[in-house]
Amino acid sequence: MMKRILIPMVLAAAAAGQKPVEFEQRPALALDSGKMEVIVMTQGGAFTSMLLKDDGEKMNPLWNPIRAARETGGPQRFGSSLGHFVCVDGFGPTSKQEAAAGLQGHGEAHRQKWEIVSSGKQGNKLVVQFRTTLPLVQEVFTRKLELVDGEQVLYVDSEVESLLAFDRPINWAEHGTIGSPFLVPEQTVVDASVGRCQTRPNNAQPPHRLASEKEFTYPMAPLASGEPVSIRAVPAAPNSMDHTGCVMDPAREHVFVTALRLDKKLLFGYLFKREEYPWLQEWMNYTKAGDLARGLEFGTQPFDVSRRQTVEMGNLFGVPAFRWLPAKSKIGTRFLMFYTQVPDGFTKVDDVRLSNGTLIIEDKKAGKQVKLAASLPL
């Protein structure tokens, strides 16, 4: 539940398109373009809410496990893992030695307090820059958010700086996650510009719907019985937990993943550079209790496994499973998040592209397009 903080500084900040708020009793910052509001946490930097101003239902596509636990009566197990959070440096479990040294899974960044380095309007553009230090891996992570007046696109620039004097492999993923009530059986479908895929080797957390460690072409994945099934949508009777890894389309410079709520005609998605995020992981957590979550996790590796495992893997399908961070150097990424309504008959995303300040989202079979103002480059 989001609660507005009624203190004098809110009124001053609101004029600049930003204001401090609480999300689930945690400090956050609300960014407003006039068409869309985005909530970002100041502890861990997660994007926890994205709302269209003209959506009467105010449906948030991003996963909120705190709300889900409250409504289903189950435990809240995911700590700072809300909505879209960043996993850097690390994506997956740690080794025994790393754990003994204090390093936890999914990296340090989403557990740290994020300092607001600067914020304010630059013409018609709201710019907020965060910074946090990762003490165990000796890195500095910065993230700049840009939101243009009248647009439904959030621009996200990030940078990791090594404080150490040697090259090393790093793991970096954007753990975007959609959840109920946006994510519902048979009505929410996921499309992506991906190539070859593989199911993750099943661990000891049944039940699993999909076969273990099998190659497939999205969206037709192999069931445990061997029969193919489309995984675009949540099944009618959810009761499974599966994980897949897919190579982003090597023929594209910019690649996408989207989630479309068919009955509500609402579309959420990402556009990013394949060179920076060559892999898409999908974590499909479909519980009988109704706490549905689906990770749209784009990053540097095919599965959320330890650093040692990704280095030993080297690559999958000829695509590297990690990224190098050179000594005393910086590497960066940039991606777009967008949220929009779609017209009647729009049922599948075949393409997302930027062209002359416009984000074009296309359903080729239906012959329909959605065009969003996107004045900043990718």
Brief account:
7% of the residues lie in helices and 47% in strands. By secondary structure, it is mainly beta.
Describe the structure.
A hairpin with a 5-residue loop joins strand 21 and strand 22 (292-299). This protein starts with a strand and ends in a 5-residue tail after the last strand. Residues 1-15 have low confidence and may be disordered. The chain is built from 4 helices and 29 strands. Helix content is 7%, strand content 47%. It has helices at 8-14, 65-72, 96-100, 307-313; strands at residues 2-4, 18-23, 26-32, 36-41, 47-52, 85-88, 115-122, 125-134, 139-148, 153-162, 168-170, 172-179, 188-192, 194-199, 215-217, 220-222, 228-230, 240-248, 254-261, 266-273, 279-286, 292-299, 315-316, 319-320, 323-325, 330-341, 351-355, 358-363, 368-373. The protein has a single domain, classed as Beta-galactosidase, Chain A, domain 5, CATH 2.70.98.10. With 378 residues, the protein is mainly β. The chain is globular and about 55 Å long.
